[in-house]
Design goal:
With 106 residues, the protein is mostly helical. The chain has one domain. It is built from 4 helices and no strands. The radius of gyration is 16 Å and the shape is elongated. The N and C termini lie far apart (47 Å).
Length: 106
């Protein structure tokens, strides 16, 4: 796998990752907590992407591993800020998947 393939794969995973992250995020959490959760999820997804796309042997190649993990992180943050947040899709997913408190209607 080349560096360009690693970046492309990472960016593709990063593009959809905010939707998956929104499932675990809660609207009541502070911005700082949401950022930390998003970064941790991105790093885990980046490592998983390396393992799935290039196999465990790819971890021996630091450049490819770093490129993939970095592309997932950058891709997820960019698509969240440019697509998912302005379109209100990610915030709606957060609201819908959050547990409701007793007496809460929505």
């Amino acid at each position: 796998m080349s560096t360009l393939d690693s970046i492309t794969t990472g960016a593709q995973v990063g593009a959809v990752l905010p939707l998956l992250t929104a499932i675990v995020q809660r609207p009541a959490w502070s911005v700082e907590v949401k950022k930390v959760v998003a970064v941790i999820v991105s790093l885990v997804a980046g490592v998983a992407t390396v393992a799935v796309s290039g196999g465990w042997e790819q971890f021996q190649h630091g450049t490819l591993t770093f490129a993939t993990v970095g592309a997932v992180l950058v891709g997820s943050q960019a698509t969240y800020d440019l697509v998912w947040k302005p379109s209100k899709v990610a915030p709606v997913i957060e609201s819908v998947t959050s547990p409701k408190r007793p007496g809460q209607t929505q």
